[in-house]
Amino acid sequence: MSCTFKTTRRVEFHETDMAGIVHFANFYKYMEQAEHEYFRSLGLTIVDKQADGSILGWPRVSAQCSFESPAYYGDLLEIRLNIERIGVKSLTIEYDLWRDKTKIARGRMKTVCCQFTLGSPMQSIAIPEWMLLKFEASMDQTE
């Protein structure tokens, strides 16, 4: 089973250096933006206020990115998100970033489902069944 979610974004001037090349840290922002759009496409949100006043969130516990080719100011990038693994408490997500037919980067992030109340420490929890069903359903289709 596979889930490929695709989104696009244009490189903005403020994301580049004086040569018009995207600063590497922005690739992590692009991946996170794709993750947020994926969640929204499932009717979910990254920060979900619960009826009991607690907050369900998805902090990153690891992130990596390998760069294959630079991206430049004005480029239209396609970010392809693939759910690599659904764990009991976590998602591992792979990202491929493309400009036209050129793959420019590959990344991976692991994010953990946590619940907390403001002022209290986060506690990792099992992914709620209602969310799990949405993630699993998305793995049966490709966009």
In brief, what are we looking at here?
The protein has two helices and nine strands. With 143 residues, the chain is α+β, with helices and mostly antiparallel strands.
Structural descriptors:
single chain, 4-stranded antiparallel beta sheet, globular, alpha+beta, 40% strand, 143 residues, 5-stranded antiparallel beta sheet
Walk me through this protein's architecture:
It is a single chain. The protein has about 140 residues and is α+β, with helices and mostly antiparallel strands. The protein has a single domain, classed as Thiol Ester Dehydrase, Chain A (Roll). It has two helices and nine strands; from the N terminus they run E-H-E-E-E-E-E-E-E-E-H. It has helices at about 25-40, 130-140; strands at about 5-10, 50, 55, 60-65, 75-85, 90-100, 100-110, 115, 125. The strands form two sheets. It has a five-stranded antiparallel sheet. The protein has a four-stranded antiparallel sheet with strand order 2-3-8-9, with no helix packed on it. Strand 8 (about 115) and strand 9 form a beta hairpin. The two termini are about 15 Å apart. The model has no long low-confidence stretch (mean pLDDT about 95).
Fold blueprint:
Elements: E1 4-10, H1 25-41, E2 48-49, E3 55-57, E4 60-67, E5 76-86, E6 90-99, E7 102-112, E8 114-116, E9 123-124, H2 129-138
Antiparallel strand pairs: 1-5, 2-3, 3-8, 4-7, 5-6, 6-7, 8-9
